[in-house]
Specification:
Blueprint (H helix, E strand, L loop, with lengths): L1 H4 L37 H11 L17 E2 L2 E2 H17 L2 H21 L5 H14 L8 H12 L6 H15 L11 E4 L4 E3 L7 E6 L5 H12 L1 H8 L3 E7 L4 H7 L8 E4 L4 H4 L10 E5 L5 E3 L4 H10 L1
Parallel strand pairs: 5-6, 6-7
Antiparallel strand pairs: 1-2, 3-4, 3-7, 5-8, 8-9
Helix pairs in contact: 2-3, 2-4, 3-5, 4-5, 4-6, 5-6, 6-7
Length: 316
């Protein structure tokens, strides 16, 4: 929590957008930092407070400020993006209920700016950065669980163009698949010896579900890191961790030729039914994709960035 405390700064005023003003260009305003009340002492409660009130002053509709291609609510857009990255990091540390409230609050405040003044770019900026940081499969702080309440509101929003609502609705549907805390979808896979297995037939206190492709550089990096981890090897050897490594595409000759790279202690196989792709059992928007499941196959980590996965595995 020492790192978080660096961001608990005195709040400063900033104005919400009301179009571009005439005359000389105004000096950019700093992004307003959250001021946590002194009575909030519990570290988790302080994080929860910060995420819920992170955007309160920035998106205050009672004030006016310049918006253009470089400024959003009087703040440089690049600075707004930097702070969204901080917000996304704090979301990951917030309790699930506080994170959900924070995303609903962010949508409501941004939408209020849009309703007040359609020339404001607060809403468009918030939507852009929410997708970039929370939903882009290459984001190191991505979280479909955190993005879900926000994109659900976009799909039903009165300030979203009608042609975009269907796309947001589809994204919400993808985010609902295999949410953290819910049972992972079961599926069949054929292993290297031609045997048919299911995800739920693999018994272990923890299961690492790894969607990978042969020849994928990032996948090979994860394979090497897993093999090189003393702690992961201990977990596998003791039976506490099972690795289910599944190929979900169609070039089986390439996959079989590459299979020598997979450790013999893993459950490596391919999806013979193409069910993961065609039936949308999982939202695999990019390869590699990693899930951590518990003994009952409930999702502990969903499409987790490798760095976070290894941090959790080291602590099991």
């Amino acid at each position: 929590m020492k790192k978080i405390s660096l961001y608990v700064l005195t709040g400063c005023l900033v104005m919400a957008c009301n179009g571009r003003q005439a005359g000389n260009a105004p000096a950019p305003q700093p992004f307003p930092k959250v001021s946590v009340p002194g009575v909030v002492q519990d570290p988790q409660e302080r994080v929860d407070y910060m995420v819920e009130h992170f955007w309160d002053t920035f998106a205050d509709t009672s004030r006016t400020a310049v918006c253009d291609t470089a400024l959003v609510a009087g703040v440089r857009k690049v600075e707004v993006e930097d702070n969204y990255g901080l917000f996304a990091t704090l979301l990951d540390q917030a309790s699930p209920s506080a994170a959900r409230r924070a995303m609903v609050r962010l949508y409501e405040k941004a939408a209020a700016c849009e309703r007040k003044d359609t020339s404001s770019n607060v809403f468009e900026t918030v939507v852009e950065f929410s997708a970039k940081y929370l939903y882009d499969p290459n984001s190191p702080v991505r979280s479909e669980d955190r993005y879900l309440p926000f994109v659900e509101l976009l799909a039903a929003s009165d300030v979203v163009r009608p042609e975009m609502k269907h796309a947001y609705g589809f994204d919400a549907q993808m985010c609902r698949l295999n949410q953290t805390g819910t049972p992972a979808a079961d599926f069949r896979f054929t292993d290297l010896k031609g045997r048919t297995r299911t995800l739920y037939s693999v018994k272990a206190p923890y299961t690492l579900l790894f969607f990978s492709n042969p020849g994928c550089t990032a996948c090979k990096g994860i394979i090497d890191d897993l093999q090189g981890s003393v702690r992961v090897s201990q977990l596998i050897d003791s039976g506490k961790l099972a690795v289910v490594n599944v190929y979900i595409d169609s070039d089986l000759d390439e996959w079989k030729a590459y299979a020598v790279n997979y450790p013999e202690t893993w459950y490596s196989g391919y999806d013979p039914d193409y069910a993961i792709r065609t039936d949308l059992l999982y939202c695999v928007r990019a390869i590699p994709s990693l899930y951590l499941l518990d003994a009952d196959k409930k999702v502990l980590l969903k499409d987790v960035p490798p760095e976070k996965l290894f941090s959790v595995l080291e602590q099991l």
